[in-house]
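Hi, here's the filled form for the chain we discussed.

Project: internal
Contact: R.S.
Residues: 306
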Amino acid sequence: MKAVGLIVEYNPFHNGHKYHLEKAKLKSKADITIAVMSSNFIQRGEPSFLDKWVRTEMAIENGIDIVVELPVFYSNQSAEIFSLGAVGILNKLKVESIVFGSETGKVELLEKVAKLQVEKKSELDERIQKSMGSGESYPNAMAKAVKEILNIENIFTPNNILGIEYVKAILKLESKIKPKTIKREKTDYHSQTIKGEIASATSIRNAIIKGEFEDIKKVVPIETYKILQREAKKDNFVFWDNFYEILKYKIITEYDKLKNIQDMEIGFENRLYKAVLEADNFNDFFEKIMTKRYTRSRVKRILSHI
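And the returned structure, exactly as it came back:
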């Protein structure tokens, strides 16, 4: 029997995920689908809107055969570590292939970039350092180097980046897993509003928070819709605000230890301490600590590590 691996959050499971699952089965010709699912803290540094047990129920109800947890050590990390953990689990489970969504839909392009980053790292780093020395940001310097070496442009989009990291993990693990990709359809990864029958998880979460369940009904499978209604009645959705008092306590009482937190750069702990004394809620606190130097996801991952 052949197994295909999917790396997922399902936060919540929606029509786009159903499309991905159906296409993955067709593309892989697999008999079994195995989903490696993020734990209760997810890759962009947030607590999962729905806990892992509810998301697992959604996955099983919608046709996934086996769900395996991606431990929080991996699920709440940069794309590189996240991917290495997820692919590592699927490699141990001996899946034949993994299928993931990407903006390009062309796995050969992602493989070329991944091989460049793994096999020609020194040459790539040299070009990147040269560009950064001229004032380029790291992402722009990377994109410029890839264009110069491979003549590939506009490849570093959110899902392409994850796809590249999945391929890199396969190379590093010397795995026999075959990467396959499906072109993402109709909606942007960060889209805030529901349009059509396929919507981003972000837009669905926003609609749930507003109580707009009629809008949600058209963009999620009926199995998901019933579970969301049940969870809404129990007010069982999770936000960073639920953890703010604990976070505040940890920052104030363990200030001297903050410098040892993963990804914490020198001096940033002082910014956290000052802001937590002034802010009454998580959103105010987060806006006070944000800086152009860090992405929002990286800052949230630092906070979750605390």
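Let me know if anything looks off before we file it.
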